[in-house]
Amino acid sequence: MPVDLYYVPGSAPCRAVLLTARALNLNLNLKLVDLHHGEHLKPEYLKINPQHTVPTLVDDGYPIYESRAIITYLVNKYGKGSALYPEEPKARALVDQRLYFDIGTLYQRFGDYFYPQIFGGAPADKDKLAKVEDALQLLDTFLDGQKYVAGPNLTVADLSIVAGVSSFEASDIDFKKYANVKRWYETVKSTAPGYQEANEKGLDAFKGLVNSILKK
Amino acid sequence: MDKSVVHKIHVANNAAARAKGSRMPTQPIKLYYLPPSPPCRSVMMTARALDIDLELVLTNIMQGEHKTPEYLKMNPQHTIPTMDDSGFILWESRAILTYLVNAYGRTDSLYPKNPRQRALVDQRLNFDLGTLYKRYMDLYAPMLFHGQGYNDEAAEKLNEALGWLNSMLEGRVFVAGDTLTIADISIVVVFSNLEAFGFDFSAHENVAKWFERTKKSLEPYGYEEIDQAGARMLASFLKKE
């Protein structure tokens, strides 16, 4: 029963899926998508994902996209009872809220600030940077007296958020000045299973890409 | 059926459910809200669909009521909607929607438990927040709240997202399958706004048909007085040419 993942190594949402699969001891068939040559815009890819984004998971023929829907799916399907995505409604709701904070506020503001610079050659926008700092301040507040973002256990919310926040290292954003965020970051790096392979490797690829673009 | 009769049946049903030991909130769930706010409208319609009593707490963000020390203590992100279920605080409308069904849904039809079906709903909810609603806000927030003009580039990006939604609806009755889910209730509020603002999305045929279908499905859950009315309130903020 093959579980295919269409991905690129540098992409933070893709790394969130890799981290989750690794935490579940799940093997994925990794399929590199050649974005540069428009592989994601070809009919075969549009069939599984009309929005032509990465990551896209195809589980025994069934396609799923949006990284945060993929990672919750993986736990629901392959990790029933796992603390990674608890089933109790209140505990689950907290993880869900952190995931929506990630896509709608934290990672979004990072993308709004940084991606125009690296992919659009735009100058750094001070107001957009201020919004990222505001989001990091919120994350810092969420982490007050908490080991992980959604409580005492590692969850998919940590995996999604760490994939995004680690990408900040490729930019001029100093997220480590937020004490709780810094502490949490070190914790997740050392407790998320297979962190080196699942996130650090792809992060290096992302940094390499950014450096080559910015050096031009 | 007469509204007061409907209400009496509703109250009796909830009492019967509690007597049977089925899960219902022990007291009305507080919802900090403002009527025109689209994510608040999603939560209110979903509560109706689940037969959940809400205690609505008007929170005038125009007058900073979301930034009082008490509000910030409850929700440091100072957003609406914020829910208080007998002391359990939650914000992010889509997390509230999933919570309400997970905790109180008599059936799972609004948010199926089957992992694949659930993943489809979750993908639609993520597409909503991360792409559709974002691009809607990128176009309309400057016009609604900062008196700015219509931005063609932003409109193009919104249309692109509508095109993607149109593809997602191909061969489907509702956004995540054959029956209504919280994904429809979350997404419909954007279209109620677009309709009230006079944004023409008729070129996206699947979307247009789905919108009419969903409006009808939500009629028993307060579509007119919650969503349509809220959208019209918001439309009045738009700068009149």
TrEMBL record, chain A:
<feature type="domain" description="GST N-terminal">
    <location>
        <begin position="1"/>
        <end position="82"/>
    </location>
</feature>
<protein>
    <submittedName>
        <fullName>Glutathione S-transferase 1-1</fullName>
    </submittedName>
</protein>
<comment type="subunit">
    <text>Homodimer.</text>
</comment>
<dbReference type="InterPro" id="IPR010987">
    <property type="entry name" value="Glutathione-S-Trfase_C-like"/>
</dbReference>
<feature type="domain" description="GST C-terminal">
    <location>
        <begin position="88"/>
        <end position="209"/>
    </location>
</feature>
<dbReference type="InterPro" id="IPR036282">
    <property type="entry name" value="Glutathione-S-Trfase_C_sf"/>
</dbReference>
<dbReference type="InterPro" id="IPR040079">
    <property type="entry name" value="Glutathione_S-Trfase"/>
</dbReference>
<dbReference type="GO" id="GO:0006749">
    <property type="term" value="P:glutathione metabolic process"/>
</dbReference>
<dbReference type="GO" id="GO:0004364">
    <property type="term" value="F:glutathione transferase activity"/>
</dbReference>
<dbReference type="InterPro" id="IPR004046">
    <property type="entry name" value="GST_C"/>
</dbReference>
<dbReference type="Pfam" id="PF00043">
    <property type="entry name" value="GST_C"/>
</dbReference>
<dbReference type="InterPro" id="IPR036249">
    <property type="entry name" value="Thioredoxin-like_sf"/>
</dbReference>
<dbReference type="InterPro" id="IPR004045">
    <property type="entry name" value="Glutathione_S-Trfase_N"/>
</dbReference>
<dbReference type="Pfam" id="PF13417">
    <property type="entry name" value="GST_N_3"/>
</dbReference>
Automatic annotation (TrEMBL), chain B:
<dbReference type="InterPro" id="IPR004046">
    <property type="entry name" value="GST_C"/>
</dbReference>
<dbReference type="InterPro" id="IPR004045">
    <property type="entry name" value="Glutathione_S-Trfase_N"/>
</dbReference>
<dbReference type="Pfam" id="PF00043">
    <property type="entry name" value="GST_C"/>
</dbReference>
<dbReference type="InterPro" id="IPR036249">
    <property type="entry name" value="Thioredoxin-like_sf"/>
</dbReference>
<feature type="domain" description="GST N-terminal">
    <location>
        <begin position="27"/>
        <end position="108"/>
    </location>
</feature>
<feature type="domain" description="GST C-terminal">
    <location>
        <begin position="114"/>
        <end position="237"/>
    </location>
</feature>
<protein>
    <submittedName>
        <fullName>Glutathione S-transferase 1 isoform X3</fullName>
    </submittedName>
</protein>
<dbReference type="InterPro" id="IPR040079">
    <property type="entry name" value="Glutathione_S-Trfase"/>
</dbReference>
<dbReference type="Pfam" id="PF13417">
    <property type="entry name" value="GST_N_3"/>
</dbReference>
<dbReference type="InterPro" id="IPR010987">
    <property type="entry name" value="Glutathione-S-Trfase_C-like"/>
</dbReference>
<dbReference type="InterPro" id="IPR036282">
    <property type="entry name" value="Glutathione-S-Trfase_C_sf"/>
</dbReference>
